[in-house]
Amino acid sequence: MQRFVLIAVPYTWLLALFLIPFVIVFKISLSDIALSIPPYTPTLEDGFGPFFSALDFENFVFLTTDDLYWKAYVSSLRIAVTSTAITLLVGYPIAYAMARAPEEWRATLMMLVILPFWTSFLIRVYAWMGILSQEGVLNQVLLWLGVIDAPLTILNTTTAVYIGIVYTYLPFMVLPIYAALDRLDGALIEAAEDLGCSRVQAFWLVTIPLSKNGIIAGSFLVFIPALGEFVIPSLLGGSGTLMIGKVLWEEFFNNRDWPVASAVAVILLLILIIPIILFQRNQQRQEEA
Amino acid sequence: MNRLSWFNVTALTFGFAFLYLPMVILVIYSFNASKLVTVWAGFSTRWYGELLRNDAFLDAAWVTIKVAVVSSTFATVLGTMAAYVLVRGGRFLGRTLFSGMIYAPLVMPEVITGLSLLLLFIGIGLDRGVMTIVLAHTTFSMCYVSVVVSSRLVTFDRSLEEAALDLGCSSFDAFRLVTLPIIAPAVISGWLLAFTLSLDDLVIASFTAGPSATTLPIKIFSAVRLGVSPEINALSTIMIGIVTIGVITAALVTKRNSLRQQQEEQAAARVA
Amino acid sequence: MAETIFAPWDDPTEKPLIRFRNVTKRFGAFTAIDDLTLDIFEREFFALLGPSGCGKTTMMRMLAGFETPSEGTIELAGQDIAAVPPNKRAVNMMFQSYALFPHLSVYDNIAFGLRRDSLPRADIDARVGEMLKLTRLEKFARRKPHQISGGQRQRVALARSLAKAPKLLLLDEPLGALDAKLRQATQFELMDIQEKTGTTFVIVTHDQEEAMTVASRVAVMDEGRVMQVATPERIYEAPESVYVADFIGDVNIVPGTARAVGDGLFQLNWAEDTVPFIAASEGAFSEGQACHLAIRPEKIAISAERPPEAENAVHGKVLDIAYLGNLSTYHVELPGGQVIKAQTANTRRISRRSFTWEDPVWVSWTKTAGVLLDQ
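YS: structure for the whole thing
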């Protein structure tokens, strides 16, 4: 009895507030837009027969005809992949240096990496607006240094979106890689060098392969949320930055086209399922090891 | 071995500069006297005063805190239950679906979660307001809580619970008197995580909040969409300050406790 | 001291405290306990001995109530306890990991079970005091488990499980976490406490020395079956199977075929063209039946000349010598290639051994030194 309640309560909650909403999204993605409240048809009030028979794939067909959508998907994928790669390049040296730092510093360094995670995401993105703008701190510094003659336009470009993603998701990359490198036995590097490897060879042949799981985990942790990101492109990106999260938002709030917004969501979900499954496999393998 | 090479020093310096400089700059500019946020016109706390007189912000902050306290508390209860089911539940019908529903929200884009919940609330005719935000936040943060708590439960020595049963506890008493006090740190960090996630959330709140309730992130977002604002700088500084003090205090307390425990264990080993 | 020997298992009128009747326990396709029938009597110190995975821990967990038998019944004082949950059983357990509650003091750990029974405060206090005294922990009552040493933790765990005065105390590898010296001292302490409290103890262990030292009876288990239940002396001197003989202590096993020669004596033909060994046996063996002679190394003498009176004597050569300080073990190769271990006590400080490698020697033993086993 106790066990039943224990399972039933969270189960029911998740069914009602997580699974059923998805079913609704899926269903509405198959409905037609209507000038009513709620702005789609058919609704359940039309009865079960017409409710199901009136469903079609029109919205999905529409998504393929208007190139805005597939361009947004492609551009989101490109931005997510590129920024994941940049985050890896920035994050790996930090994680490596942390793992090589003296024992007594490591806890503090860890805390310093985690700390930004506890501060508001929105504020961290916002902080870059003041830095990247035409009269922003970055341009002022570069002008003062004489590196540039005229201020650069960075804010409201895709570059700013890259910076924003790398900045906000950097801890997600650093932590798993650090965890992998921290476990790495220093004697392995010494053994490799003893067997004739140079420093660089030892790094490529021993350190990198042994931190592979951390790299994979970190990459997924950056890639997955970056793909559906909304805040960063809408604050730092410009009109030229197409990201699917932003498109969905605008479709829903500005155009009030719920069926198309739902169809956009369904496709985004389908795109995400592959990396999510790959990520979970990687995690499971790690747990088993 | 662990000497810091020039490479490591450089990586750490640049890495942490990248992580912290933007926030430092934000904090500095919050004390700028000028309305023009990019021009330094001397030190002033003017914007903090303006912020405190801005009722809209204060109201939003109050709503946000209410939502965060209530939703993180619900999320902690539900998430701890879910963690218990995941780790100790054994086999039951739909276990795979259950664990799927626990892990999926962690990787789900917020726009989708927000959209789906909004469509649900409209579908069942629930008026959007504080209540719907609480429901939404509870749902996604309970998953984070359950991940944090279940990772603690996995390493929990099960014979402690068996010992409690053996000494006459009912299974609920065993949980209340033995398991809960021992996993309390994980439950508390789960609560803090849920609280922070709720405070922080813009996207899901935007979907599920009605005109009657506006949270601080929604307010900030609409204020900064058009550009940098000195009041938001001041607000950000306050929020960064609170988090920094909180995290540092927590870290110091943890460090002191583990140091003390270490000393006591060493003392015990000497006695033996 | 004209005390009667404590041996309720030999008394047919004695009612057992615990009775396993045809108990089988399966986990999926794996059978942990296979059709087990066993009686344990009041005030016994009963040891379950066996390698890991032999089912001894499962048996104990069934007694505590954490597992239920798939088949058969377990009775405690005449009552079937299958339906009684662990928190309602008059059985307490001392866990291998001790399972001390890390957030409670030593005092609160010991009082934990008593508080569940809603006893008056004064009674709890008195009982905990008694337990602290019994386990010599008075000074540590207010410490937390991580503030005391391993040996003290072991005693807290014991005090906690004894506090409720259970009819039966289960001890799961209670000394496993202690170092060798401390373990020996604690074994005697355990026996002392068992005697003082008069509680029935069932101990699970994989350490044969520990089982032999503390237990009134030992059950040797293998793959879910009890191979033999007997007093430590009988387990050692009169094993009923090669498995038991081999599991407990060091032993020579000589396979061969039996031939009755009357008077409870049998000949063992162990190799061609050799004089058969002679051994006394309580069991009967048919002509030509395959059997094994099990004989302990310390019961075999080694000499340069053939001892004139020897009932069994065989010539061989020294293959190996293991010097253990107090003892020396000689490995002697017999004509058929069989190797026999003979042990001698090093009663004198010797600068030179009587025998060395490759020396021809005689090994000899009496007809009652070994046991004949059919399995």
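YS: worth flagging: The mean pLDDT of chain C is 89.
IM: good catch. Also The first strand of chain C starts at residue 18 and ends at 27.
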